[in-house]
């Protein structure tokens, strides 16, 4: 059996969820006008990808780009894993 209180809870939950996923450009805080997207954030994702691709190709042609070899990639991945693990260990130690 559904009670009126159950329906009110569902409506509140839906409203709260919708507000939580609204883009930051639509949410007002402290009575300020909504923020507008600028730069790459305001562009079509396909256009951003095309511009990034052009930049990468230009850097390759100019010889200023860097390509990881397998050993460099392995070292970089290890550093990232160690940093993440250290953060998790510090967080776990702080919560005890």
UniProtKB/TrEMBL annotation:
- Disordered, as annotated region: 1-42, 54-96
Q: Superkingdom of the source?
A: Bacteria
Q: Where is the composition biased (Low complexity)?
A: 10-20
Q: Which Pfam families match?
A: KGG
The protein, known as: Stress-induced protein
Q: What residue spans carry the Basic residues bias annotation?
A: 86-96
What's the source species' lineage? Bacteria, Pseudomonadati, Myxococcota, Myxococcia, Myxococcales
């Amino acid at each position: 059996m559904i009670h009126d209180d159950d329906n009110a809870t569902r409506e509140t939950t839906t409203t709260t969820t919708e507000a939580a996923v609204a883009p930051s450009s639509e949410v007002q805080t402290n009575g300020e006008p909504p923020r507008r997207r600028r730069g790459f954030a305001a562009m079509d994702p396909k256009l951003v990808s095309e511009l990034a691709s052009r930049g990468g190709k230009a850097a390759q042609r100019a010889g200023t780009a860097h390509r990881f070899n397998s050993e460099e990639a392995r070292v970089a991945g290890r550093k990232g894993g160690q940093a993440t693990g250290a953060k998790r260990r510090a967080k776990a130690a702080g919560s005890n």
